[in-house]
């Protein structure tokens, strides 16, 4: 019998599916982007609010999972009092709960913004993650569509603040009431037709993908794709299909508004919806936002089961190459709409609300495609080398490091185990450090420090072939009195910055 103890198995490091680790460059890019979004939201008079990552599961509104499957769609756990809690699915349901809970203490209209992670317990796939960031703004307590028009203008201003030019984006606006009116006008009103209406919405949502002919098939008998797979249609007749196609085919809203009003005349909400769209169009046009920036577009069906009035979508119009190598329009990076029913669930009284939500990760991908991110270069820290390890010397190196930091210069004292000076310079080089600070015993006695220009030194080693060139080149290492350390470091960093601009 083998008495040798089994070696304990090493724990395998593995990232959970659908989640990502974020590196410094991505974190800085998101910070840069969200700072610009925040600036626009603040300018519009919105204030920040923060809600926790967890909510009681029954507060999640339409995302409430089945009672016997509490983890369906959301990540849930049971608290010690046996109540179910879930990681938030979006930022809107927590806001609705916050408003309802603090209704007597908040000033209406309540105008807030917040950025944060949301969680989806769904199957991950390419570009689909279980944790991602959203940046929302909402107005609660304003019933007029002026609040919706403002959201559209704020979204347009946000796109431009991020460097997305006019023509590369458009904010598309529709209204749930108008679409409901069209569906009622073709005989699909009432609870008994809820399933049929959903099928029509799904068909309309495929307009960008399949075009009017494909949507016509999906509204009627069904559509067969190239592979032979058949998608069952909504089963509408020719007259019904013609009316739906007229509605989603409107390209010049002003020219078609009268025909649309005639189509929805007599329906419970259709005419009201047309009036709201007309008012939004008038308000944004008066403020200088033409159809090149904000466009009334009846083909927008963004999550319409969630919304009760105007809906809007921010769409980027430039082409990118997808995973299959095809050129496609980048598409939606966010949107929103009026959701008058969400806060009301807690209150037992009507509470109007409207909001926008920007998908931060998706927008970041778009900005990378446009070369609009990472423009503010982060300089790696100056490295203070550790030449001697006695207490006095270490104290001196620490003093230099803190002096640089207090002067606003990124700096670090070498903390590794390598005693060899060459190895420390290699470390600094791998860090991308611009300068190394060096003081051996002879420099310390003279009260001086050596500053090595690592960027220039690297260039010289590749370019200089003779002594004349060496003498003419910028000196890659200088010696200065300790008191002049900060001034000389600033001067050398400024020279490097100038080189980068010229290069």
UniProtKB/TrEMBL annotation:
GO cellular component annotations of the record: cytoplasm
Residues spanning the membrane: none
Gene3D superfamilies recorded: Anticodon-binding domain (3.40.50.800), Bira Bifunctional Protein, Domain 2 (3.30.930.10)
Ranges for domain Aminoacyl-transfer RNA synthetases class-II family profile: 32-381
Keywords: Aminoacyl-tRNA synthetase, ATP-binding, Cytoplasm, Ligase, Nucleotide-binding, Protein biosynthesis
Catalytic activity, as annotated: tRNA(His) + L-histidine + ATP = L-histidyl-tRNA(His) + AMP + diphosphate + H(+)
UniProt binding sites for L-histidine: 90-92, 120, 134, 138, 302, 306-307
Localization, UniProt: Cytoplasm
Name of the protein in question: Histidine--tRNA ligase
Organism name: Pararhizobium polonicum
Lineage: Bacteria, Pseudomonadati, Pseudomonadota, Alphaproteobacteria, Hyphomicrobiales
């Amino acid at each position: 019998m083998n008495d040798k103890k089994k070696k304990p198995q090493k724990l395998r490091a593995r990232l959970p599916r659908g989640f990502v680790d974020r590196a410094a460059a991505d974190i800085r890019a998101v910070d840069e982007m969200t700072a610009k979004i925040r600036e626009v939201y603040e300018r519009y008079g919105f204030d920040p609010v923060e809600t926790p990552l967890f909510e009681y599961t029954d507060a999640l509104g339409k995302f409430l999972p089945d009672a016997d499957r509490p983890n369906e769609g959301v990540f849930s756990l049971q608290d010690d009092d046996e109540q179910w809690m879930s990681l938030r699915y979006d930022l809107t349901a927590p806001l609705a709960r916050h408003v309802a809970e603090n209704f007597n203490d908040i000033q209406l209209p309540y105008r807030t913004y917040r950025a944060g992670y949301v969680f989806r317990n769904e199957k991950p796939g390419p570009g689909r993650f279980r944790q991602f960031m959203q940046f929302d703004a909402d107005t609660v307590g304003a019933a007029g569509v002026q609040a919706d028009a403002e959201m559209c203008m704020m979204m347009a201003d946000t796109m431009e603040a991020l460097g997305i030019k006019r023509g590369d984006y458009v904010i598309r606006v529709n209204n749930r009431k108008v679409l409901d009116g069209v569906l009622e006008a073709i005989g699909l009103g009432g609870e008994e037709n809820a399933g049929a209406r959903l099928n029509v919405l799904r068909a309309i949502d495929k307009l960008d993908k399949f075009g009017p002919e494909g949507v016509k098939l999906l509204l009627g008998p069904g559509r067969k794709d190239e592979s032979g797979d058949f998608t069952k249609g909504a089963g509408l007749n020719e007259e019904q299909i013609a009316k739906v196609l007229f509605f989603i085919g409107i390209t010049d809203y002003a020219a078609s508004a009268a025909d649309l009003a005639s189509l929805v005349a007599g329906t419970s909400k259709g005419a009201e919806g047309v009036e709201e769209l007309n008012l939004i169009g008038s308000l944004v046009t008066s403020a200088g936002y033409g159809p090149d920036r904000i466009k009334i577009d009846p083909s927008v069906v963004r999550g319409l089961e969630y919304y009760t009035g105007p809906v809007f979508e921010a769409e980027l119009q430039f082409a990118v190459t997808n995973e299959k190598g095809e050129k496609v329009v980048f598409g939606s990076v966010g949107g929103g709409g009026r959701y008058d029913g969400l806060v009301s669930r807690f209150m037992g009284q009507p509470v109007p609300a409207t909001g926008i939500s920007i998908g931060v990760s998706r927008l970041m991908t778009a900005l990378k495609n446009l070369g609009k991110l990472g423009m503010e270069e982060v300089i790696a820290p100056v490295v203070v080398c550790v030449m001697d390890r006695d207490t006095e010397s270490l104290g001196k190196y620490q003093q230099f490091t803190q002096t640089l930091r207090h002067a606003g210069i990124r700096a670090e004292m070498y903390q590794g185990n390598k005693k060899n000076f060459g190895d420390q310079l290699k470390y600094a080089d791998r860090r991308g450090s611009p300068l190394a600070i060096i003081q051996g015993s002879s420099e310390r006695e003279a009260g001086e420090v050596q500053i090595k220009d690592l960027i220039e030194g690297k260039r010289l080693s590749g370019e200089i072939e003779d002594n004349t060139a060496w003498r003419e080149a910028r000196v890659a290492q200088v010696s200065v009195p300790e008191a002049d350390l900060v001034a000389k470091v600033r001067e050398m960093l400024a020279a490097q910055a100038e080189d980068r601009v010229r290069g």
